[in-house]
Write a structure and sequence with these properties.
alpha+beta, two-stranded antiparallel ribbon, flat
Length: 79
């Protein structure tokens, strides 16, 4: 890996039928560049976590859909 690269970590664990999962992106250089700060995964993650999607009574598919919509829009606008 070199400065300017991003490291994506997707880790999960399963214990007694329960599963935990975390996905994080780290800048190899220690700081995100300006273009990296606007990366789709971070905006999509925040959309899924937002007040509308992550509400009691909503399904996990609601959170996934909110994240998906942001990612799709960002990718289409960036070409």
């Amino acid at each position: 890996m070199q400065a300017g690269d991003l490291l994506l970590v997707d880790a999960a664990a399963n214990y007694q039928g329960m599963t935990g999962d975390i996905t994080r992106t780290y800048p190899v250089s220690g700081a995100f560049s300006e273009p990296q700060k606007g990366a789709v995964p971070d905006r999509a993650r925040r959309a899924g976590r937002g007040d509308e999607a992550a509400q009691a009574g909503n399904k996990t598919s609601d959170v996934e859909k909110a994240s998906e919509e942001v990612a799709k829009a960002e990718l289409l606008s960036s070409g």
